[in-house]
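2024-03-11 09:14:02 DEBUG pipeline.ingest accepted 1 chain
2024-03-11 09:14:02 DEBUG pipeline.ingest length=381
2024-03-11 09:14:03 DEBUG pipeline.predict start
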Amino acid sequence: MYHIALNKEKKRLIESLKLFSVRFVMAVSNSMLLFFQKLLFRKSDNPKKILIFRTGSLGDNLCAIPSMVAIKKKYPGAVIDILSNTGQSNLVSLKNLLDKNLYNSIIDYLGMEKKYLVKMLKGNKYDLVIQLPQTDAGFFRLLRDLFFFRYIAASGWGWQFSTVRFFRRTQEKFMLFPNETKRLADILESQGIAVDQQRYELNFTEEDHIVVRERMAERKLEAGKKNIALVVGAKRAQNRWSLANFKSVIEGIGNSYNFLIVGGPDDKDLAAPILSLPGVYDFCGSLTPMQSALLISRCVLTLSNDTGPMHLSYAVGTPVIALFSSRDFPGKWFPPESEKNKVFRTPGVSCSLCLSENCMNNICMQAIKTQAVIEAMKERL
């Protein structure tokens, strides 16, 4: 018994040291970033021209929108440009997602010559640069950005280090991570800018409304309580719950609801095994992200893997049951905490927090039980 107690105490001590190391690196990194920020930039109380820097795809951009809304509210008279790397022609770019009243222009530097980009940004004469950093941005990348943007503007803030990649299992066990929307909101609130984390101002056009109404009318679907959105795809294969499980959900909920499959063109083939089921309707690849959001807004509930339409769901106010693999830190990409939303993620898997891009056996997703998901759906229905 003495040896067992000793081993337990030793394990607790090791875990405490690991946790201390993570927090120490986080604190030192952010202290250094703050030091250079105060050293290089001056405060700007009334900027006339602002550059917001945010990279990423659909989910990344959606999580940043409440912060962008708050910046516009704080500086209503300022000209605001947004620097992004999604690609102008990409349907998930901020140009297609964000309400046009929130910005002056979106500068997409994907494929742009660096010298031209630097010259253009410098020539725009910004008073303030605000970086909304990616959650996985490394310290030296953030430091590089900080020095680069000092060349662009005399005032700036937003550089925050938030992901330590060692001792990940210890972090999973003992640390709580805010979701991405809240993390960005916390950065703004440290600068005295209040953020309404539920406020998503999206770029819906009249054409979007017409297309969605027509698509639903073609299938004799009404915008009401009888529709459930299903998102069976995901960019990473390891983030996908099996089609057999989605099939079981459809059968378990019963035929009193319509199931609308939402996703991109690549998801059509993936969803093929369940498209012939009664009450299942395929919208994969036939709608833009904004049109998909409108379709989801006409559903009573969304069941989704960890992918873009999951974020679209809570952005338009539709409750979401989100299915997460264990590859990434828990919480970081979760929907907002709410009685309406529910997250399934399997903790303590032998390979959790692998951060892998090529998992051929996603045991963490396999461990999410169909019956538990069905029960959670029925509670919300």
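2024-03-11 09:14:41 DEBUG pipeline.report The chain has two domains: 2-189, 206-380.
2024-03-11 09:14:41 DEBUG pipeline.predict end
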